[in-house]
Amino acid sequence: MVKSKPEYDIYEMFNVTNDTCKKSTWLCFKFRFLPPHLINHLIAALSRKYRVAEVASTKQDKKQIALFSGTAVFELQKTPKLRKLLVMKCPNAIQIQVLQFGKQIEGGLYKYIADFMTEEIIKIISTRFKMSNVKFEKKWECGQTKPESVTGSNDFCEDQDTKYYCETCKIAHEFTGEWSDLQHGTLDFTKEEINFTKMGMIVLNVLADVSYDLLKPDKPNLRPRSDFDITQLYQEHFKLKKHIPTNGWGGNWQTIKGTDIAVGDDIERIRLTRNELQHSTAAEIGDTRFNELCNILSDLLKRFDQLNKPARLYTDQLNTILSKTMSAEEVQSMKMKH
Ligand SMILES: [Zn+2]
Protein backbone atom coordinates (compact mmCIF):
# COMPACT_ATOMS: atom_id res chain seq x y z
CA MET A 1 0.00 0.00 0.00
CA VAL A 2 1.47 3.32 -1.04
CA LYS A 3 0.53 6.39 0.93
CA SER A 4 1.51 9.95 0.30
CA LYS A 5 2.57 12.12 3.21
CA PRO A 6 -0.30 14.39 4.27
CA GLU A 7 0.20 18.12 3.75
CA TYR A 8 -0.74 18.87 7.32
CA ASP A 9 0.51 17.33 10.51
CA ILE A 10 -2.40 16.55 12.83
CA TYR A 11 -0.06 15.77 15.73
CA GLU A 12 1.63 19.14 15.40
CA MET A 13 -1.72 20.90 15.15
CA PHE A 14 -2.92 19.47 18.46
CA ASN A 15 0.52 19.47 20.09
CA VAL A 16 0.55 15.72 20.40
CA THR A 17 3.91 14.66 21.80
CA ASN A 18 4.90 11.72 23.94
CA ASP A 19 4.83 14.04 26.98
CA THR A 20 1.44 15.65 26.39
CA CYS A 21 -0.61 12.80 25.10
CA LYS A 22 -1.08 9.05 24.95
CA LYS A 23 -1.79 7.72 21.49
CA SER A 24 -3.93 4.61 21.26
CA THR A 25 -2.99 1.79 18.93
CA TRP A 26 -4.29 2.31 15.41
CA LEU A 27 -7.48 0.50 14.56
CA CYS A 28 -7.66 -0.19 10.82
CA PHE A 29 -10.69 -1.16 8.79
CA LYS A 30 -9.02 -2.80 5.80
CA PHE A 31 -10.93 -3.26 2.55
CA ARG A 32 -10.14 -5.14 -0.60
CA PHE A 33 -12.05 -2.35 -2.31
CA LEU A 34 -12.78 0.82 -0.34
CA PRO A 35 -15.88 2.58 -1.70
CA PRO A 36 -14.59 6.12 -2.52
CA HIS A 37 -17.26 8.06 -0.62
CA LEU A 38 -17.45 5.84 2.43
CA ILE A 39 -15.22 8.20 4.42
CA ASN A 40 -17.53 11.17 3.76
CA HIS A 41 -20.59 9.30 4.97
CA LEU A 42 -18.64 8.08 7.97
CA ILE A 43 -17.46 11.58 8.87
CA ALA A 44 -21.07 12.75 8.51
CA ALA A 45 -22.25 9.97 10.86
CA LEU A 46 -19.55 10.86 13.38
CA SER A 47 -20.45 14.58 13.19
CA ARG A 48 -24.02 13.76 14.19
CA LYS A 49 -22.69 12.21 17.38
CA TYR A 50 -19.49 14.13 18.14
CA ARG A 51 -18.23 17.66 17.56
CA VAL A 52 -15.44 18.25 15.10
CA ALA A 53 -12.40 19.44 17.08
CA GLU A 54 -11.22 23.02 16.72
CA VAL A 55 -7.67 24.17 16.66
CA ALA A 56 -6.06 27.61 16.71
CA SER A 57 -4.15 28.16 13.53
CA THR A 58 -0.55 29.10 14.24
CA LYS A 59 -0.43 32.80 13.28
CA GLN A 60 -3.92 34.22 13.73
CA ASP A 61 -6.21 33.74 16.67
CA LYS A 62 -8.92 32.45 14.39
CA LYS A 63 -9.86 28.87 15.10
CA GLN A 64 -10.33 26.36 12.37
CA ILE A 65 -12.09 23.03 12.54
CA ALA A 66 -10.06 19.88 12.04
CA LEU A 67 -11.87 18.67 8.96
CA PHE A 68 -9.84 18.00 5.84
CA SER A 69 -10.27 15.88 2.79
CA GLY A 70 -10.35 12.32 4.08
CA THR A 71 -9.22 13.27 7.59
CA ALA A 72 -11.05 14.59 10.63
CA VAL A 73 -10.58 14.96 14.37
CA PHE A 74 -13.58 14.67 16.72
CA GLU A 75 -14.06 15.54 20.38
CA LEU A 76 -15.18 12.35 22.10
CA GLN A 77 -15.92 14.37 25.23
CA LYS A 78 -17.84 17.67 25.12
CA THR A 79 -15.77 18.78 28.09
CA PRO A 80 -12.96 18.48 29.15
CA LYS A 81 -11.97 17.60 25.56
CA LEU A 82 -9.17 15.31 26.71
CA ARG A 83 -10.13 12.54 24.34
CA LYS A 84 -9.98 13.12 20.59
CA LEU A 85 -10.64 10.74 17.74
CA LEU A 86 -8.51 10.93 14.63
CA VAL A 87 -10.12 9.39 11.53
CA MET A 88 -8.18 9.03 8.28
CA LYS A 89 -8.81 7.57 4.86
CA CYS A 90 -6.02 5.62 3.20
CA PRO A 91 -5.98 3.94 -0.22
CA ASN A 92 -7.55 0.69 1.02
CA ALA A 93 -8.40 1.37 4.61
CA ILE A 94 -9.93 3.69 7.14
CA GLN A 95 -7.75 4.05 10.19
CA ILE A 96 -8.59 5.59 13.55
CA GLN A 97 -6.62 6.55 16.63
CA VAL A 98 -7.64 8.08 19.95
CA LEU A 99 -5.49 10.91 21.25
CA GLN A 100 -5.81 10.79 25.01
CA PHE A 101 -4.52 13.81 26.91
CA GLY A 102 -3.57 13.30 30.54
CA LYS A 103 -4.78 9.78 31.24
CA GLN A 104 -3.60 6.22 30.87
CA ILE A 105 -5.25 4.10 28.20
CA GLU A 106 -6.82 0.96 29.59
CA GLY A 107 -8.24 -2.24 28.18
CA GLY A 108 -11.75 -1.89 26.80
CA LEU A 109 -11.71 1.93 27.07
CA TYR A 110 -12.48 2.56 23.39
CA LYS A 111 -14.60 -0.47 22.60
CA TYR A 112 -17.62 1.82 22.23
CA ILE A 113 -15.87 3.74 19.46
CA ALA A 114 -14.77 0.58 17.67
CA ASP A 115 -18.35 -0.73 17.87
CA PHE A 116 -19.86 2.56 16.68
CA MET A 117 -17.49 2.73 13.69
CA THR A 118 -18.07 -0.92 12.77
CA GLU A 119 -21.85 -0.57 12.91
CA GLU A 120 -21.84 2.68 10.93
CA ILE A 121 -19.58 1.24 8.22
CA ILE A 122 -21.85 -1.78 7.82
CA LYS A 123 -24.94 0.44 7.82
CA ILE A 124 -23.52 2.78 5.16
CA ILE A 125 -22.32 -0.04 2.91
CA SER A 126 -25.55 -1.99 3.11
CA THR A 127 -28.33 0.59 3.31
CA ARG A 128 -26.86 3.54 1.48
CA PHE A 129 -24.60 1.88 -1.08
CA LYS A 130 -26.58 -1.37 -1.21
CA MET A 131 -23.35 -3.29 -1.70
CA SER A 132 -23.53 -6.68 -0.04
CA ASN A 133 -20.15 -7.93 -1.23
CA VAL A 134 -17.91 -5.26 0.31
CA LYS A 135 -15.88 -6.96 3.00
CA PHE A 136 -13.51 -5.47 5.53
CA GLU A 137 -11.21 -6.75 8.23
CA LYS A 138 -10.20 -5.11 11.48
CA LYS A 139 -6.46 -4.91 12.19
CA TRP A 140 -4.28 -2.98 14.59
CA GLU A 141 -0.87 -1.41 14.76
CA CYS A 142 1.31 0.32 17.37
CA GLY A 143 0.19 3.91 18.01
CA GLN A 144 3.74 5.20 17.57
CA THR A 145 3.55 4.33 13.88
CA LYS A 146 3.25 7.50 11.76
CA PRO A 147 -0.18 7.89 10.13
CA GLU A 148 1.23 7.53 6.62
CA SER A 149 3.12 4.35 7.56
CA VAL A 150 0.25 2.43 9.14
CA THR A 151 -0.55 -0.75 7.25
CA GLY A 152 -2.62 -2.56 9.89
CA SER A 153 -0.16 -5.40 10.22
CA ASN A 154 -1.63 -7.16 13.26
CA ASP A 155 -4.69 -9.37 13.59
CA PHE A 156 -6.97 -9.25 16.59
CA CYS A 157 -7.01 -12.64 18.21
CA GLU A 158 -9.13 -13.89 21.06
CA ASP A 159 -6.12 -15.03 23.07
CA GLN A 160 -3.83 -12.03 22.66
CA ASP A 161 -0.60 -12.24 24.67
CA THR A 162 0.06 -9.35 27.02
CA LYS A 163 3.36 -8.45 25.33
CA TYR A 164 4.29 -8.12 21.68
CA TYR A 165 7.32 -7.11 19.63
CA CYS A 166 6.71 -3.85 17.80
CA GLU A 167 8.24 -3.54 14.35
CA THR A 168 7.99 0.27 14.45
CA CYS A 169 9.67 0.83 17.81
CA LYS A 170 11.74 -2.35 17.71
CA ILE A 171 10.99 -3.09 21.36
CA ALA A 172 8.47 -5.17 23.30
CA HIS A 173 5.17 -3.43 24.20
CA GLU A 174 2.38 -4.27 26.59
CA PHE A 175 -0.81 -5.07 24.68
CA THR A 176 -3.53 -2.79 26.07
CA GLY A 177 -6.58 -4.04 24.17
CA GLU A 178 -8.33 -0.65 24.33
CA TRP A 179 -10.54 -1.50 21.32
CA SER A 180 -11.78 -4.76 22.77
CA ASP A 181 -13.90 -5.97 25.65
CA LEU A 182 -12.71 -5.18 29.15
CA GLN A 183 -12.37 -8.87 29.84
CA HIS A 184 -10.37 -9.28 26.68
CA GLY A 185 -7.43 -11.58 27.12
CA THR A 186 -8.30 -12.46 30.68
CA LEU A 187 -11.09 -14.90 29.85
CA ASP A 188 -10.39 -18.39 28.73
CA PHE A 189 -12.81 -18.58 25.84
CA THR A 190 -11.40 -20.44 22.87
CA LYS A 191 -11.78 -19.57 19.19
CA GLU A 192 -14.08 -22.60 18.92
CA GLU A 193 -16.39 -21.29 21.65
CA ILE A 194 -16.52 -17.87 20.01
CA ASN A 195 -17.40 -19.56 16.68
CA PHE A 196 -20.19 -21.43 18.41
CA THR A 197 -21.56 -18.22 19.93
CA LYS A 198 -21.56 -16.43 16.57
CA MET A 199 -23.23 -19.35 14.80
CA GLY A 200 -25.80 -19.54 17.58
CA MET A 201 -26.65 -15.86 17.13
CA ILE A 202 -26.96 -16.36 13.37
CA VAL A 203 -29.35 -19.27 13.89
CA LEU A 204 -31.48 -17.68 16.62
CA ASN A 205 -31.75 -14.28 15.01
CA VAL A 206 -31.14 -14.34 11.28
CA LEU A 207 -32.16 -17.85 10.18
CA ALA A 208 -35.29 -17.89 12.33
CA ASP A 209 -36.31 -14.54 10.79
CA VAL A 210 -35.72 -15.92 7.30
CA SER A 211 -37.94 -18.91 7.96
CA TYR A 212 -40.66 -16.77 9.54
CA ASP A 213 -40.59 -14.10 6.81
CA LEU A 214 -40.92 -16.85 4.21
CA LEU A 215 -43.96 -18.30 5.92
CA LYS A 216 -45.77 -15.03 6.55
CA PRO A 217 -47.23 -14.27 3.07
CA ASP A 218 -48.86 -17.72 2.99
CA LYS A 219 -50.28 -17.56 6.52
CA PRO A 220 -52.33 -14.39 7.00
CA ASN A 221 -53.02 -15.01 10.69
CA LEU A 222 -49.56 -16.15 11.65
CA ARG A 223 -48.76 -15.75 15.36
CA PRO A 224 -45.90 -13.36 16.20
CA ARG A 225 -42.32 -14.32 15.46
CA SER A 226 -41.50 -14.69 19.16
CA ASP A 227 -43.97 -17.61 19.39
CA PHE A 228 -41.83 -19.74 17.07
CA ASP A 229 -38.47 -21.44 17.20
CA ILE A 230 -36.70 -22.87 14.15
CA THR A 231 -38.09 -26.38 14.67
CA GLN A 232 -41.69 -25.12 14.84
CA LEU A 233 -41.14 -22.97 11.75
CA TYR A 234 -39.75 -25.98 9.90
CA GLN A 235 -42.87 -27.96 10.82
CA GLU A 236 -45.07 -25.17 9.47
CA HIS A 237 -43.21 -25.27 6.14
CA PHE A 238 -43.52 -29.05 6.12
CA LYS A 239 -47.30 -28.83 6.64
CA LEU A 240 -47.67 -26.06 4.07
CA LYS A 241 -45.82 -28.12 1.40
CA LYS A 242 -45.29 -25.04 -0.76
CA HIS A 243 -41.49 -25.33 -0.96
CA ILE A 244 -40.51 -28.99 -1.30
CA PRO A 245 -36.81 -29.90 -0.91
CA THR A 246 -35.25 -31.38 -4.08
CA ASN A 247 -34.34 -34.59 -2.26
CA GLY A 248 -37.29 -34.79 0.10
CA TRP A 249 -37.78 -33.71 3.72
CA GLY A 250 -35.50 -34.54 6.60
CA GLY A 251 -32.25 -35.45 4.85
CA ASN A 252 -28.71 -34.79 6.05
CA TRP A 253 -25.91 -32.55 4.72
CA GLN A 254 -24.82 -35.29 2.31
CA THR A 255 -28.31 -35.42 0.77
CA ILE A 256 -28.14 -31.81 -0.42
CA LYS A 257 -25.81 -31.01 -3.28
CA GLY A 258 -24.34 -27.52 -3.66
CA THR A 259 -26.38 -27.15 -6.85
CA ASP A 260 -29.67 -27.78 -5.01
CA ILE A 261 -30.85 -24.24 -4.47
CA ALA A 262 -34.63 -24.60 -4.39
CA VAL A 263 -36.27 -22.72 -1.51
CA GLY A 264 -37.08 -26.12 0.06
CA ASP A 265 -33.36 -27.02 0.00
CA ASP A 266 -32.59 -23.87 1.95
CA ILE A 267 -35.32 -24.73 4.47
CA GLU A 268 -33.43 -28.00 4.97
CA ARG A 269 -30.10 -26.17 5.29
CA ILE A 270 -31.57 -23.98 8.06
CA ARG A 271 -32.78 -27.04 9.94
CA LEU A 272 -29.43 -28.83 9.51
CA THR A 273 -27.45 -25.82 10.76
CA ARG A 274 -29.63 -25.56 13.83
CA ASN A 275 -29.32 -29.33 14.48
CA GLU A 276 -25.58 -29.22 14.12
CA LEU A 277 -25.39 -26.63 16.90
CA GLN A 278 -27.82 -28.57 19.05
CA HIS A 279 -25.67 -31.72 18.73
CA SER A 280 -22.35 -30.03 19.37
CA THR A 281 -21.75 -31.51 22.83
CA ALA A 282 -18.97 -29.12 23.84
CA ALA A 283 -20.62 -25.97 22.45
CA GLU A 284 -17.67 -25.49 20.10
CA ILE A 285 -17.17 -25.24 16.32
CA GLY A 286 -13.74 -25.62 14.72
CA ASP A 287 -12.52 -22.95 12.29
CA THR A 288 -12.78 -25.11 9.17
CA ARG A 289 -16.39 -26.13 9.79
CA PHE A 290 -17.28 -22.61 10.91
CA ASN A 291 -16.01 -21.16 7.63
CA GLU A 292 -17.84 -23.82 5.62
CA LEU A 293 -21.10 -22.99 7.38
CA CYS A 294 -20.52 -19.25 6.90
CA ASN A 295 -20.07 -19.78 3.16
CA ILE A 296 -23.17 -21.95 2.89
CA LEU A 297 -25.26 -19.45 4.86
CA SER A 298 -23.89 -16.41 3.07
CA ASP A 299 -25.11 -17.86 -0.27
CA LEU A 300 -28.41 -18.90 1.28
CA LEU A 301 -29.03 -15.44 2.75
CA LYS A 302 -28.30 -13.76 -0.57
CA ARG A 303 -31.05 -15.89 -2.11
CA PHE A 304 -33.48 -14.97 0.68
CA ASP A 305 -32.57 -11.27 0.43
CA GLN A 306 -33.88 -11.48 -3.13
CA LEU A 307 -36.92 -13.55 -2.26
CA ASN A 308 -38.16 -12.05 1.03
CA LYS A 309 -36.86 -8.50 0.49
CA PRO A 310 -36.41 -7.82 4.23
CA ALA A 311 -36.22 -4.22 5.53
CA ARG A 312 -32.68 -4.88 6.70
CA LEU A 313 -30.77 -7.31 4.46
CA TYR A 314 -30.04 -10.70 6.06
CA THR A 315 -26.51 -10.58 4.66
CA ASP A 316 -25.88 -7.36 6.61
CA GLN A 317 -27.18 -8.94 9.78
CA LEU A 318 -24.81 -11.86 9.12
CA ASN A 319 -21.85 -9.53 8.58
CA THR A 320 -22.66 -7.57 11.73
CA ILE A 321 -22.57 -10.74 13.81
CA LEU A 322 -19.39 -12.01 12.12
CA SER A 323 -17.48 -8.77 12.65
CA LYS A 324 -18.68 -8.22 16.21
CA THR A 325 -16.42 -8.78 19.21
CA MET A 326 -18.27 -11.24 21.42
CA SER A 327 -18.61 -10.29 25.05
CA ALA A 328 -18.21 -12.75 27.88
CA GLU A 329 -21.92 -12.42 28.60
CA GLU A 330 -22.81 -13.37 25.05
CA VAL A 331 -20.56 -16.44 25.07
CA GLN A 332 -21.95 -17.54 28.42
CA SER A 333 -25.58 -16.96 27.52
CA MET A 334 -25.22 -18.96 24.31
CA LYS A 335 -23.75 -21.82 26.35
CA MET A 336 -26.79 -21.64 28.64
CA LYS A 337 -29.25 -21.73 25.73
CA HIS A 338 -27.36 -24.74 24.45
ZN1 LIG B 1 5.62 0.47 18.88
Describe the overall structure:
The chain is of the alpha+beta class. It is built from nine helices and 13 strands. The strands form three sheets. Strands 1, 2, 3, 6, 7, 8, 9, 10 and 11 form a nine-stranded antiparallel sheet that branches. It has a two-stranded antiparallel sheet with strand order 4-5. Strands 12-13 form a two-stranded antiparallel ribbon. Helix 4 runs parallel beside helix 5 (230-240) and helix 4 (191-215) runs antiparallel to helix 6. The site of zinc ion has 6 residues, from loops.
Which SSEs are present, and which pair or pack?
Elements: H1 10-13, E1 21-23, E2 26-31, H2 38-49, E3 51-52, E4 54-56, E5 63-65, E6 67-68, E7 71-75, E8 83-89, E9 93-101, H3 111-128, E10 136-141, E11 154-155, E12 163-165, E13 172-174, H4 191-215, H5 230-240, H6 263-278, H7 287-308, H8 314-323, H9 328-337
Antiparallel strand pairs: 1-9, 2-9, 2-10, 3-7, 4-5, 6-7, 7-8, 8-9, 10-11, 12-13
Helix pairs in contact: 2-3, 3-8, 4-5, 4-6, 4-7, 4-8, 4-9, 5-6, 6-7
Bound molecules: zinc ion.
Could you tell me how far the N terminus lies from the C terminus, measured between alpha carbons in angstroms? 44 Å
Shape: elongated
Per DSSP E runs of 2 or more residues, the count of β-strands stands at 13
Specify the structural class: alpha+beta
What does the average pLDDT come to?
89
Biggest sheet descriptor: 9 strands, antiparallel
* Radius of gyration from CA coordinates: 23 Å
Taken in chain order, the helices and strands follow as HEEHEEEEEEEHEEEEHHHHHH
Domain DZIP3-like HEPN: 204-328
InterPro entries: HEPN_DZIP3 (IPR041249)
Protein name: DZIP3-like HEPN domain-containing protein
Pfam families: HEPN_DZIP3
